[in-house]
Amino acid sequence: MSRIQYFVASSLDGFIATPDDDLAWLLQFDGFEGGKESYESFMDGVGCIVMGGETFAWLMKHEPGNWPYPSTRCYVFTRHEHAAPPGSDITFVRGDVGEFVQDFKDAAAGRNVWVVGGGNLAAQFADAGLLDELIVSVIPVVLGNGKPLLPLEGPTPPLELTASRTLGRGIVELRYAISPTGGAADA
C-alpha cells in the first residue's frame, strides 16, 4: 500500500532553506557518511514524486539539463507554465492535493509517494490528513530564519517516532508516523 512521505533535510531550528532559497548551508554536507545509503534506500521505495512549482524551478535553475528523477513519474503543482525537461515523466497540475491523491498512488504502483522540497506543499498534504510519514534529516546548522519545515496553521497531534539514527557529521535522521487523522489539531 502506498504511503505519502515527506523526506527532507532541515536545519536544527526547523528551516529547509534560507528566505531566498539558498541551500549552501545544506550542500556543504554533501557526501556525509550514511547519506547516500539513506537516500538510495528511501528512493528504492518511491514510485511517484510530487513537488511544488518553486522546487521544480529551483531544480531547473540549479541542475540545467540534468533531471534528477528520470525513471520516476512526477507531478508538479504550479500556477505557471513550464516545459518538462528531456527524459522526464512530468505532469503539471493545479488545484487541491486531495483531488490528485489517487492519481499519485496509481502512478506509484504499490510503492510510496514522495513529497519533495517545499514545506508549503507538504503542509497541504498534512492539513488534508494525507501525509503518512515525515522523514527529516536534521542538519547541525542554525539558520535563524528561512522557509519552515512544515508551515501548518496549528499544532499537529503527537507524531510517533518510528526510527532514529545518527549519520555522519552530526546529522540525525528521524522518522515519524503521522496520525491517520492528520492535519492541525483543533485547539
What is the succession of H and E elements? Answer: EEHHEHEEHEHEEEE
> Which strand order spans the largest sheet, edge to edge or round the barrel?
5-4-3-6-1-7-10-9
Low-pLDDT runs of 5+ residues are 182-187
| Distance between the ends | 32 Å
Number of separate strands: 10
Mean pLDDT comes to 93
Main sheet overview: 8 strands, mixed
Q: Considering DSSP H and I runs of 4 or more, what fraction of the residues is helical?
A: 10-25%
Beta-strand content estimate:
25-35%
Oligomer: single chain
Shape: globular
Rg, rounded, reads: 16 Å
Number of helices in the DSSP assignment: 5
Category by helix and strand content: alpha/beta
Summarize the structure.
It is built from 5 helices and 10 strands, in the order E-E-H-H-E-H-E-E-H-E-H-E-E-E-E.
Tell me the layout of helices and strands.
Layout: E1 4-11, E2 15-17, H1 24-27, H2 35-44, E3 46-52, H3 53-62, E4 73-77, E5 90-93, H4 101-108, E6 112-116, H5 119-127, E7 133-139, E8 147-148, E9 160-166, E10 172-177
Parallel strand pairs: 1-6, 1-7, 3-4, 3-6, 4-5
Antiparallel strand pairs: 2-8, 7-10, 9-10
Relevant terms:
disordered C terminus, 8-stranded mixed β-sheet, two-stranded antiparallel sheet, alpha/beta, 5 helices
Describe the structure.
By secondary structure, the protein is α/β, with parallel strands linked by helices. Helix content is 22%, strand content 29%. The strands form 2 sheets. It has an 8-stranded mixed sheet. It has a two-stranded antiparallel sheet with strand order 2-8. Strand 3, helix 3 and strand 4 form a beta-alpha-beta unit. Mean pLDDT is 93; it is low at 182-187.
